[in-house]
Design goal:
Lipocalin; 8-stranded antiparallel β-barrel; 58% strand; Lipocalin-like domain-containing protein; signal
Amino acid sequence: MKRFLAYLPLLALMACGGGADPEPDISGTYEMTEYVTPGAGGSGTVTYTFPYTNPQNNLVYTGKVKVVKSTESRLGIVYTIGVEGRTSLTDSLTLSIRSGGGQFQMYDGNTKVGTVDATSFLYDSRTQVGTQTLQFIIKAKK
């Protein structure tokens, strides 16, 4: 019995160690904090910080990003921007993901377009059209 008691702290320590850290839970709804879209005619960018109050009509815009990890390597993303009581703008994406460092890197084909972890979401896509680079960014927090 004394031998068992002597090994008890060692057994407790071994039970806590070993194995990989659990993956962060990335599925869920994130509140959009920033939205960047190409400017008029594709020139420059326009940045909206959410909640955003339109100075012309005082309407307050909010945004949400819903993330669903559909498989070990795929994410379904639906983002919504809107004003309460009005029709919202909604779009969706499906991206591949790779795990590393407590977060996931998001890819569109072979191009890295962002990161997501248990508390934050960043999507940053750039597309070359002629001589212009069109940039589209979504930042969000759980």
